[in-house]
Design goal:
The radius of gyration is 17 Å and the shape is globular. It has 7 helices and 12 strands. It is an alpha/beta fold. The chain has one domain: 3-Layer(aba) Sandwich (Rossmann fold).
Length: 239
């Protein structure tokens, strides 16, 4: 039997491949999660009995501007994978990568017991994805927030948006440990320190410039993405 990793070309997917190298990691042309027939055929053909689902449309602005694509990718795509695994391997294991953004972000240190309240369409689609995944008996939802360990992609970074950030490679290590332990339900994979986006950006890009939410115009952003975990250890961001 085999493990499917979706989103293998994404920031997190690439890091997971490095430490869980035996995953089946199809390209988008090989597996279109929005295509139900394609998903069902792929799961059956490759005898997939566990899935690590990282594929998602994550740009808040893109999700607001193209809700149909966001819905089909983040909700329908997840539903297709869940239904295919349930049909072929009812006891299969499904690990779903979610986000701190399922919380509104007006408080601090959200734990696994906190009540989700999404502030934008991206976060809504991820929360609905969580609900779909919970239909499987052997499911795990990991909420986290991370950035790529590379040059900050923008000229500026927010000084007033916060999170218990980790780098993607740090998160991949946590995912491997949790995946191998076969934990279930919901776990927050978090850093042990609160950083602003600007603080994190400076680690890889010392010349990044500061900005605040007053300088921003666009869809509503989750301001406070700090997560706490009552179920798993915390990780140090590696520098």
């Amino acid at each position: 039997m085999n493990t499917l990793l979706t989103g293998g070309n994404g920031i997190l997917g690439k890091e997971i491949q490095k430490i869980i190298p035996n995953c089946i990691t199809p390209s988008r042309s090989e597996l279109d999660i929005k295509n139900k027939d394609n998903v069902f055929d792929f799961i059956k053909l490759h005898q997939i009995d566990s899935i690590i689902h990282t594929a998602a449309l994550t740009s808040i602005r893109n999700c607001e501007e193209n809700k149909k694509n966001a819905w089909e990718t983040n909700v329908v795509g997840t539903q297709n994978l869940v239904e295919a695994l349930s049909l072929n391997y009812p006891d299969g294991y499904f690990l779903y990568i979610s986000t701190a953004c399922v919380f509104k972000g007006d408080e601090q240190m959200y734990s696994e017991k906190s009540i989700p309240n999404p502030a934008n369409f991206y976060a809504l689609t991820k929360l609905i994805g969580e609900t779909i995944v919970q239909l499987l008996p052997n499911h795990l939802i990991i909420r986290t927030n991370f950035v790529a360990r590379k040059k900050w992609p923008y000229e500026k970074a927010f000084t007033d948006r916060y999170g218990t950030y980790l780098f993607a490679d740090d998160v991949a290590v946590g995912i491997k440990e949790i995946f191998e332990s076969k934990q279930k339900e919901i776990i927050h994979l978090v850093g042990d320190k609160i950083y602003s986006m600007y603080d994190v950006a400076k680690i890889t890009t010392p010349d990044v410039k500061p900005m605040t939410l007053q300088d921003y115009s666009g869809p509503h952003l989750t301001i406070n993405m700090t997560l706490d975990s009552l179920k798993w250890k915390k990780y140090k961001i590696s520098k």
